[in-house]
């Protein structure tokens, strides 16, 4: 059976005058016994109830206590003594027994004790231990090692009863818990620690009493004023606690570790990770990172968006080749030689080769760029260059169009010089003949030559006027002098002007315009010019000796007016129509046409109908003739004439 001498509660009522060590700590009870303090024998003074009220320096040295440690911190167990050993000692009988001494931050120490009444009638019991034992010296050495180890070990450790009573504790920095070390003795842990630690430990002890054996928990404490260590000043402190119920015992071991620095480091790492993730998400291109084993680490939302058909494979830990081949099998990429492209893509990825462009199945173009990291991983950027590709195509088309325009310009100048040089040579030649009277004075042929000169002049004037009109229209400087126009009248006037040419070519002119056709608002002179160009072309290319030109006007379903000029002449092949609509375009040579033309009639007519907001359409087939349709918009139909 074990007799335990309990630790006296640390209060003035239980041990008055115990605020100082040594003899003064026991107040009047040990007055006159100061000579005991000088003895080399370890001595303790106990009350009959077993409370330790004083110990000398030798006793402190035996256990390994600091001088300012309260005697009440010592617990003495008498495992081999009879239950009434203290009563017998108090009545004057000496009792020898084996005792186990328990003190903070030391190992339990077994010693032989002799119990006897104190030398004076103080009512106290004197406990004396031998001062010579080698075991005691070894125990002191072990206690010193234990104390050193306790201060080197970062945890705060408690030995508790199941109700939370603190039997023992060891701590390198007891102030971490914002509690003075002396408060840990003879108190319950849930009464000493601040909240929320107290409540959490009380709940954990309750679960241990219900049968659990190991419980772990985390808690934080507010900073202690003037704290040093355990985190930056003014910051909360974080702790991890672990409670273990000892089997076949009523004791619980509790260790509490200050993990503030680790928690702060983890928090800083999480903030850095979130900051990096946010930055990566803000990148407008797709971003992806593979580790040294070529496994996917992370990617941003833009990357997932570009390869949305492959999202289930784009997960951390998936290797690059699996992601690539999975996408290829699902038709993500639009490449002619898929297997060959995959091999080139893997080679480019492994060696971080030059950028590569690929078109996806949805038509988007992606530029792939990759770089190696210091750890052997791969970081890649996927940029959507669809718009860039479209601009390149547009620039290519524009470049081709510019080259074609430059060629047309050269052809234009060539045709213009030819068209002007030919009549001008005739003018100069005939003028010189007439001026020098090379055929004799007053030769009747001079009159014909003068007519040739006049015709050539008219041709050049018409040519220059047409060129100027085209230039003004293209520059947006042609003004319309709008009025209500009667198409029947305009066609009739044009027929009157073109009739001599039609008679010479044996071509019949026909007009089919209903009497109730609404008036047309436009520039009458320009409308006549369009009719002149179209009717003139029709006469020129009409069927010889059996030709006819038909001019028709009608309202459209949309409310506009369609003006049609059709002939039954030699016609054109479909591929010749764009040539005929180009300036100076000559589809038929002189062997197919009755008279020469400048090639400006159709282009100018198309520009003039466009100036009126209308449309130009031409149909033609070889041997069946040509039909040109001018459509004026509904907004130009009607109005007073």
TrEMBL record:
Residues 415-636 form the Histidine kinase domain. Its EC number is 2.7.13.3. InterPro entries: HATPase_C_sf, HATPase_dom, His_kinase_dom, HisK_dim/P_dom, HisK_dim/P_sf, PAS-like_dom_sf, Sensor_HK_Regulatory. It catalyses: ATP + protein L-histidine = ADP + protein N-phospho-L-histidine. The keyword Transferase applies. Keywords: Kinase, Transferase, Two-component regulatory system. Gene3D superfamilies: 1.10.287.130, Histidine kinase-like ATPase, C-terminal domain, PAS domain. This is histidine kinase. It comes from Azospirillum isscasi. The lineage of its organism: Bacteria, Pseudomonadati, Pseudomonadota, Alphaproteobacteria, Rhodospirillales.
């Amino acid at each position: 059976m074990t007799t335990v001498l309990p630790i006296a509660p640390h209060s003035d009522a239980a041990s008055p005058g115990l605020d100082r060590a040594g003899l003064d700590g026991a107040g009047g009870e040990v007055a006159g016994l100061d000579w005991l303090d000088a003895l080399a024998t370890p001595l303790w003074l106990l009350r009959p109830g077993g409370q330790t009220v004083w110990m000398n320096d030798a006793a402190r040295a035996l256990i390994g206590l600091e001088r300012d440690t309260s005697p009440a911190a010592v617990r003495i167990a008498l495992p081999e003594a009879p239950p009434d050993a203290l009563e017998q000692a108090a009545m004057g009988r000496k009792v020898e027994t084996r005792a186990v001494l328990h003190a903070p931050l030391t190992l339990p120490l077994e010693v032989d004790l002799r119990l006897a009444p104190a030398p004076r009638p103080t009512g106290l019991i004197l406990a004396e231990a031998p001062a010579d034992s080698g075991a005691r010296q070894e125990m002191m050495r072990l206690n010193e090692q234990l104390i050193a180890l306790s201060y080197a070990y970062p945890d705060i450790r408690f030995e508790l009863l199941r109700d939370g009573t603190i039997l023992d504790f060891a701590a390198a920095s007891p102030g971490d818990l914002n509690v003075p070390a002396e408060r840990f003795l003879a108190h319950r842990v849930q009464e000493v620690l601040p909240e929320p630690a107290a409540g959490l430990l009380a709940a954990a002890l309750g679960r241990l009493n219900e049968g659990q054996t190991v419980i772990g928990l985390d808690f934080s404490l507010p900073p202690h004023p003037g704290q040093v260590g355990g985190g930056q000043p003014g910051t909360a402190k974080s702790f991890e606690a672990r409670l273990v119920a000892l089997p076949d015992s009523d004791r619980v071991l509790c260790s509490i570790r200050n993990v503030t620095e680790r928690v702060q480091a983890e928090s800083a790492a999480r903030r850095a990770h979130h900051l990096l993730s946010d930055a990566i998400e803000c990148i407008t291109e797709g971003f992806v990172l593979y580790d040294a084993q070529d496994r996917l680490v992370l990617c941003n939302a833009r990357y997932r968006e570009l390869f949305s058909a492959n999202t289930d494979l784009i997960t951390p830990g998936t290797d690059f080749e699996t992601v690539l081949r999975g996408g290829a099998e699902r038709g993500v990429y639009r490449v002619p030689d898929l297997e060959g492209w995959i091999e080139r893509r893997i080679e480019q990825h492994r060696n971080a080769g030059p950028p590569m462009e690929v078109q996806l199945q949805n038509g988007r173009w992606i530029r792939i760029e990759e770089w190696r990291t210091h750890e052997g991983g791969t970081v890649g950027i996927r940029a959507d260059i669809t718009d860039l590709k479209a601009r390149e195509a547009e620039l290519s088309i524009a470049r081709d169009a510019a080259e074609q325009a430059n060629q047309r310009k050269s052809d234009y100048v060539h045709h213009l010089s030819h068209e002007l040089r030919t009549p001008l040579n005739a003018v100069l030649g005939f003028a010189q003949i007439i001026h020098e009277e090379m055929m004799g004075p007053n030769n009747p042929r001079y009159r014909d030559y003068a007519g040739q000169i006049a015709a050539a002049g008219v041709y050049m004037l018409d040519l220059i006027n047409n060129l100027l009109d085209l230039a003004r229209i293209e520059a947006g400087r042609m003004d319309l002098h709008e009025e209500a126009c009667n198409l029947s009248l305009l066609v009739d006037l044009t027929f009157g002007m073109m009739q001599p040419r039609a008679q010479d070519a044996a071509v019949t002119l026909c007009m089919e315009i209903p009497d109730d056709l609404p008036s047309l608002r436009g520039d009458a002179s320009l409308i006549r010019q369009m009719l002149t160009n179209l009717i003139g072309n029709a006469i020129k290319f009409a069927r010889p000796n059996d030709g006819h030109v038909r001019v028709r006007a009608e309202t459209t379903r949309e409310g506009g007016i369609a003006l049609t000029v059709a002939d039954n002449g030699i016609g054109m092949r479909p591929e010749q129509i764009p040539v005929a609509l180009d300036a100076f375009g000559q589809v038929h040579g002189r062997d197919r046409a009755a008279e020469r033309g400048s090639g400006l009639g159709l282009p100018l007519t198309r520009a003039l109908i466009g100036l009126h907001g209308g449309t130009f359409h031409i149909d033609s087939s070889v041997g069946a003739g040509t039909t040109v349709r001018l459509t004026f918009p509904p907004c130009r139909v009607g109005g007073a004439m």
